[in-house]
User: What shape does this take?
Amino acid sequence: MASEISIKRVYEPASPSDGTRILVDRLWPRGLSKEKAHYDLWLKDVAPSTELREWFGHQPERWPEFQKRYSAELSRNPVMAELRDLATKGHVTLLYGAHDEEHNQAVVLADVLKSRH
Assistant: This one.
C-alpha cells in the first residue's frame, strides 16, 4: 500500500493533514520551542552525519554530491527501517529547519522513501 510522504519546514503551522510529523534534523531548530514544533517523533539519527552536514553547508552547488552521499548514508542507516514502517502505516510529514526548501535533507529522505516502497 502506497502512503503519502510530505515535507514541511518545522516553523510552518501544523495541519491535521500532516499525519505523523517527524523531525529529521540532527540539531534542534533554532528559536523554536518543543511545544511550538508540534512534532510526533524526532529521528535525529536519520539526519546526515555531522561531517556531511558541515561539508554541504547548504551550498546549492554541492547539492548533487550531497544527494549521492546522503543516499549512501541512508542505505546503511538502521533507523530507515523504523521510518519506512511508519510511512507504510499512513501519511508522514518530514520536518526540517533549513531555510532552503529545495536543497535540504528532507527532500533527499522523501525521495529515498518514495523510491524504495
Strands lie at 5-9, 20-23, 41-42, 92-96. The chain has a mean pLDDT of 93.
